[in-house]
Amino acid sequence: QVQLVESGGGLVQAGGSLNLSCVGSGEPLRGYLIGWFRHAQGQERGMVAFLTGGGSENYAVSVNGRVTVSRDNVKNTGHLQMNNLKVEDTAVYYCGVRRTYLGFSDRSSDYQYWGPGTQVTVTS
Description:
The chain is an all-beta fold. Helices cover 0% and strands 49% of the residues.
């Protein structure tokens, strides 16, 4: 069983940065697919980035160039580094984990485990 808890969200001005964390427990996350999704008010949940078990990164067009996804196997933690934040980035951010192999996953239904989310608010 995998449990996930996000942290690192908060209130920032446009152009600022945040580093979100996703701490896993119960099982090692190494080799698992880690995805980051966000849910903005009035919008459906959408993919921000994901990191495959093999280390391949993928980013949504809206954040490409401003976001980096990574993992720390020692701390069993995933990270989403976000730079040059925009007002449009305001949302609740969630991390998800898929235990079984997929080389590409931008659909929330592909993920088996989720954290409760962390709020990111960007002001102009």
